[in-house]
Amino acid sequence: MMGKTKSDIFTAEDLSQIEGEYKLLRDNLYRCDNPGDRELIDKAFNFANEAHRDMYRNSGEPYIIHPIHVARIVNQEIGLGSRSVAAALLHDVVEDTDVALEEIRREFGPKIASLIDGLTKISGTYNKETNSLQAENFRKMLMTLSDDIRVILIKIADRLHNMRTLDSMPEYKKMKVAGETVYLYAPLAHRLGLFAIKTELEDLSFKFRHPRIYDEIARKVKMDEKKNLALINRFSLPIIEELNNNDIIFDISGRFKSIYSIWKKMQSKNIPFEEVYDLLAVRIVFEPGPEMSERAQCWQIYSLITDIYTPKPDRLRDWISRPKSNGYEALHLTVMGPEGRWVEVQIRSQRMDDVAERGFAAHWKYKGDMLQTDNELDKWLKHIREMLSNPMSDPLTFLDEFKMSLFSSEIMVFTPKGLLVNLPKGASALDFAYEIHTDIGNKAIGAKVNYKLSPLSTTLQSGDQVEIITSNIAKPEKDWLEYAHTAKARNGIKDALRDESTDRIQKGRELLEAKLGELGIMPNSDIIKKLLEYHELLNKDELYSRIGLGLINLDELRKVLRKAPEGSLKKYWKLAIGGVTRKSSGEKESPLPGGTIDKSLPYLLREDVDNTGDSYRIAECCNPIPGDEVVGYIDRSNAIIVHKPKCPTAVKLMSSEGNRIIQVRWTIHKIASFLARVSINGIDRIGLINEVTNIISTELNVNIRNINVSVYDGIFEGTLDLYVHHTRDLNNLIMQLSNVRGIASVKRIEEFIE
Fold first, then answer.
1. Do both 48 and 185 map to the same domain?
2. How far apart are the first and last CA of the chain?
3. What is the Cα Rg of the chain in Å?
4. For 317-335, what is the mean pLDDT?
5. Which of 449, 607, 608, 661 could form a disulfide with 454 if both were Cys (CB 3.0 to 4.6 A apart)?
6. CB contact set of 634 (below 8 Å; sequence gap of 6+)
7. Looking at residue 397, what is its pLDDT?
8. Residue 460: pLDDT band by 50, 70, 90 thresholds?
9. Number of folded domains in the chain?
10. Residue at 377 is within a domain
11. With bands split at pLDDT 50, 70 and 90, how would you rate the model's confidence at 723?
């Protein structure tokens, strides 16, 4: 992924650095004590070192340092063994040097060669219609997942080290890699139980996407660090004493909420940093005693803690009775600590902690070349295999559905016979039907949820008992996709609709050929073209489909074919981007989106072009205004769409079409106005709204598009839609309104939550 260059020869300093980094890896190997393990790793290092000889990264260090660090993450942070370490050392050899995969297979065997193949990106040819090489590469990597999940774990390690060294990359590449990381790799690490890596990936991605916000939150966390450490120590002392009195062998440690999770809480609750109450957490890891089970001992420690501190009832999380789908087990509670501060306490056994830190890698047992996994992972792999088995799905659709499968928030529902079925949160009765069997989903017409007749679109809750009602004449409908959430349901519906469409197209083709035969006309491209123009259709499949459905009457076919065309209107338009004007019809498209835009320099959003002009367009999904952090996306028509970096649409585009992401920068805007929304609430009084509107329109000269206020029991709340030129104007307005008597809070509303 990172850039590299060839030089004449490594310096003595380079060679010393390589030797030192490899020694750090070799001296701290974990689970590599079997005969031949270290010899294999040495052989892989020597091979990779020779292949990458005299190659440098953008950071200026020898390229081989990167594979060494990836191998250290694979071994020491994820816990994989010698073959994975060897594959990590070799992971860029085929992609970035002259070494062929067949040579890897000869030197290191088929298993390591298979891992390297899964880690090697597609080059040259790919489906141009999707225009997403990122998505194609991600799907290629996942194709090996069902055979050997170590490919994904090595890729996560590769991404983690790239994120740790992302500073050396150009700005637009930082946005692309950081967006892809938070969209795909962090959720994937979470799904595999790699909590520490997931947290670091999120924080690093946030750092590069929102550097100013990241630095501000980091500064505030640092300022509170000493005070919070003292608070954790005071909080822990009585717990330590009580655990010692009960002869429990344990380790206790404090931690702070990650910067990314603090920001997410601020966004979701619309609160400032100072109001995020659960910043502190204490973790207790115990050695289970022989006299009781791990689960019973967790509850014993819970009881000891709640004898000291008052718990918050709605914050109890029991993941020992029913572990998370990624294998995570723990008991979480939140209690009132010193100085009126809420503190979260996590209770785990040593085994649970190992699983929490290393994920499924902690469960794995190696038997020869085979990798055995626990049941929960097997279930997830089965879902991914079903998604991968659908060759018709384009990579972008696949990315969406894969992303959906990563979330581990689950509900537990029951069949009429009491069998337990796990589904993602938000799943519908239709998802349940397909989870039982594809044929049941295809024939479903309704459901009984807790014995009550319900539509298939009903959103299920944990604990529901569901019975599916079927009919032999039922068939999937297109609108089912609106409330089907699982990959199995969506693929089942799409397959059925595709089969039906294929039958309809075939039927339409046969009907048209038969009718033309009656008229003594041979079917050809001119005939099809005339029919498409007459019925205003885009392609022949749509024509055949409409004929098959009976929507086109073939009795008028002779009249249609004799009718002279009224002349076809050809549309031409020009697009002005970055000072380059290009015609959209009859000219060859530039292979680089955006024509001659220099992606290494920010594109200036000028004030002489309004927000609906040809140069750029403001994204409606996030409505950025001058002063906001923004990125640009070059769409298929080569227009620049301006998004906020935290906008979910922008994050998705970074992860699937990163080559179309560019830097953009506001210039001072005094002409153009941009729509922003503000929420206000407080205690109602006579004349308050009049005073608010007077400040906005008269004193600050800001135009109001819409105002919506409601009052209940003396408390008012509402929203204001305003046209402003810059975030400075908006911040000034918020400050002025905050000083109005009776107003409790004034906040800008974000139209989305990441």
1. yes
2. 26
3. 30
4. 84
5. 449
6. 577, 593, 594, 597, 640, 641, 660, 662
7. 59
8. very high
9. 6
10. no
11. confident
Q: Are residues 630 and 579 in the same domain?
A: yes
Give the C-alpha separation, 353 to 329, whole Å. 8
Judge whether 653 lies within some domain: yes
184 with 56, same domain: the answer is yes
Look at residue 128 and tell me if it is in a domain. no
The residue from 609, 636, 666 where one domain ends is: 666
In a domain, 245, yes or no: yes
In a shared domain, residues 93 and 188: yes
Q: Which two tokens stand for residue 570?
A: 């050809």
Cα distance between residue 180 and residue 508, in whole Å: 43
Q: For residues 68 and 181, state if they share a domain.
A: yes
95 has catalytic annotation: yes
pLDDT at 441: 92
Q: Do residues 419 and 520 share a domain?
A: no
Q: Distance between CA atoms of 585 and 567, rounded to whole angstroms?
A: 18
Q: What angle do CA 240, 243, 248 make, to 5 degrees?
A: 125
Q: What are phi and psi of 286, to 5 degrees?
A: -120, 155
Tokens of residue 696, six digits: 């906005």
Domain termination site, one of 622, 637, 666: 666
What is the residue whose two structure tokens read 């930082």?
A: 174
pLDDT digits (tens, 9 = 90+) for 202-253: 999 999 988 999 999 999 888 888 888 888 999 999 999 999 999 999 999 9
* Residue 200 contacts residue 206 (beta carbons within 8 Å): no
Q: Of residues 42, 61, 96, 635, which has the active-site annotation? A: 96
Identify whether the C-beta of residue 711 lies closer than 8 Å to the C-beta of residue 720. Answer: no
Structural tokens at position 568: 């076809």
Q: Is the pLDDT of residue 41 over 50?
A: yes
Residues 416 and 445 in one domain: yes
Q: What digits encode the pLDDT tens for the residues 329-378?
A: 899 999 998 888 888 999 999 888 887 777 655 555 323 333 444 455 56
What's the token pair of residue 97?
């040097």
* Catalytic pick among 37, 95, 354, 394: 95
CATH number at 185 reads 1.10.3210.10
Of the listed ranges 41-50, 282-291, 351-360, 406-415, the one predicted with least confidence = 406-415
**The token pair that represents 522 in the structure block:** 């041979």
